Amino acid sequence: MRDDLQQPGYEQARLYALRQLNLLDTPPSESFDRITRLASKFFGMPIAAVSLTDADRQWFKSRVGVEHWEIPRFKACCGEVADESKVLVVPDLLESSTYRDSMLADSGIRFYAGAPLQTQEGYTLGAMCVLDTQPRELTAEEVALLQDMAAMVMAQIELQHAFGRIDPLTGLPNRSQLAEDLDDMARDAPGRRHCALFTEVLDISQVSTLNRVMGPSYVDELSRLAARGLQEVLSEKCRLYSVGPCQFVHLVDVCSDEELLEGALRLREALLSLELINEAPILVRPVVGVAPLCLGADMAADVLRTAHSACQDARLTEMGAGIYSQALDAKHRRRFMLHSDFRAALNAPDQLRLVYQPRIELSTNRCLGVEALLRWRHPTLGEVSPAEFIPLVEDTPLARPLTAWVIYTAIDQARDWHRQGLNIGVSLNVSACNLDEDDFAERLLSQMSKADLPASAIELELTETALFDQGQAAWEQLDHLIEAGIRIAIDDFGTGYSSLAYLQDIPAQVVKIDRSFIKGLDDAPRSRTLVESMLNMAHSLGYRVVAEGVETQRTYDYLESLGCNEAQGFLMSRPLEAQDFEAWLLKSKA
Ligand code: C2E
Ligand code: CA
Ligand code: CA
């Protein structure tokens, strides 16, 4: 036996190498059959095979003159070739003490010759073998030929393996190779830490712009030049991978953040000095993202994802290079998750609900209505604030079913209160895009009439921006609603347009002064002046004014003294579940 074969773990590593090649149990292939046919013909023997040594069997990738695909490894000559990693010639099996009683001898085989199929790393996968039913000898020249054929088989195996692991454009190893290399490295040094540097010359939108404007060969050329430019900066030993169009990855040892960033910026400089990048018809801003990785713990896909995420973050800063931030990544992932889970929430029976925050008339201390506020209990993230998820879905096709859900639920609740004899108006928050639905007013009005609700029972809140950025179709929806007697409130008043003059043109009846102005009333004289002038202006134009976010009695009293119509805020009540609101209402009347 060879020395290294006695090393513990050799057989395990050998099997790993074999399985990595994904050859076992694959269909026959002409490229191997050609070689076995040649061997059988050349040696004038009835049987030839490419035989791979698995844990407990010999499996034939290619065979001539044998029926079966596999035989047990026990007492198989090819198994010995795999163990010993050298040519084995058995002139007569019946004369061999080892093989006399083997399955091969039993099936009438007398002669065996096998040459090892050896990888570049020195693992013997099995044997290229020829067999005869007669005893015979092999000359040294014939042995050499059998070894040549084994080498041809190995070349074929390695070629096939490399195919799909090399990026044809840059000639660099690709993502699959990166995954395989990380696996290999993890076997050698599990738990060792490295950093992955992800260099992106162009982002995906720039790639498609360039493809469109310049044709695909332009980006190809850019990829090729960038690959060369990067490799020149990196040491020769450093393996650069091509992981996407104009995207490259390489691994470095762990070092300080400063050193990492310095290295990253050096790569970026190298790219910026490329002529093709400088002369590109669009501004090309290469970025480099750095992400830590732990061999064995992080899969290649994770490494690519985190490093690319660092890249995308680097794109947002002017730095051009950045280190992966778990917090930032978690934020992106949370946003993505909320966004993609919201559809399910709309259809789930128990994830969404409305809570109601009372609005108090200051002159009478009576509650005239409530604002309906959406709540989402996410199955894994728990309660998510509407301030977080609404902006995420507002500009998507989900905005429509979202508002439809709110309207349906609020009308149901309003009907319930009306049947109980409670004269409570419900204010709903509506997104700008809802007004683009040309049946929005129609549907709302028909649902209200089915529920026997008077127009005064529902009010719609829209932000200034939402109201102002509307086209003709949206104004028609608004006019339709106002004609039917539905009140429109301008929400978050004061935070949108700086000019108050537009107020004259908006067909609303209520102005809700944003809580950021109300908050400062107790101690900032400037806020007082602002609120006072907003109130006067709104009143003179005939609006009813509601102050949001009233948290102290002082603010409440001050607003009352100014003649503000209604107030809403934690001082009076937080948003409440429907039943809790009913109880609150009873108590407040008592
Ligand atoms: P908004 O329309 O300005 O709603 C008022 C927000 O102020 C609510 O936050 C409410 O809980 C909070 N608030 C009320 N009083 C006080 C107070 O005294 N102090 C403080 N600090 N906050 C107070 P919430 O429920 O988190 O809603 C946030 C935003 O989400 C809403 O702001 C609104 O823009 C949006 N939103 C909520 N529900 C819906 C909905 O059904 N549809 C749409 N399109 N948007 C909604
Ligand atoms: Ca509101
Ligand atoms: Ca508001």
* Helix coverage percent: 40-55%
Average pLDDT figure: 92
Largest sheet: 8 strands, mixed, barrel
What portion of residues belong to β-strands? 15-25%
Q: SS-based structural class? A: alpha/beta
Indicate the overall shape.
elongated
How many E-type strands?
20
CATH architecture of the largest domain: Alpha-Beta Barrel
From the 3D structure, determine the CATH topology of the largest domain.
TIM Barrel
Spatial strand sequence of the major β-sheet: 12-13-15-16-17-18-19-20
- The CATH class of the largest domain turns out to be Alpha Beta
* Ligand identities: ligand C2E, calcium ion
In the predicted model, the low-confidence regions spanning at least 5 consecutive residues are 1-5
Give Rg in angstroms.
Answer: 38 Å
SSE topology:
Layout: H1 10-20, H2 30-43, E1 47-53, E2 57-64, E3 70-72, H3 77-84, E4 88-90, H4 103-106, E5 111-118, E6 124-132, H5 140-162, H6 175-188, E7 193-200, H7 204-214, H8 216-233, E8 241-244, E9 247-253, H9 257-272, H10 275-278, E10 287-294, H11 300-316, E11 321-323, H12 326-347, E12 352-361, E13 366-378, E14 382-384, H13 386-394, H14 399-419, E15 425-429, H15 440-450, E16 458-463, H16 464-468, H17 472-483, E17 487-493, E18 510-513, H18 515-519, H19 525-540, E19 544-548, H20 553-562, E20 566-568, H21 578-589
Parallel strand pairs: 10-11, 13-15, 15-16, 16-17, 17-18, 18-19, 19-20
Antiparallel strand pairs: 1-2, 1-6, 2-3, 4-5, 5-6, 7-9, 7-10, 8-9, 12-13, 12-20, 13-14
Bound molecules: ligand C2E and calcium ion (2 copies).
The site of ligand C2E has 21 residues, from strand 13, helix 13 and strand 17.
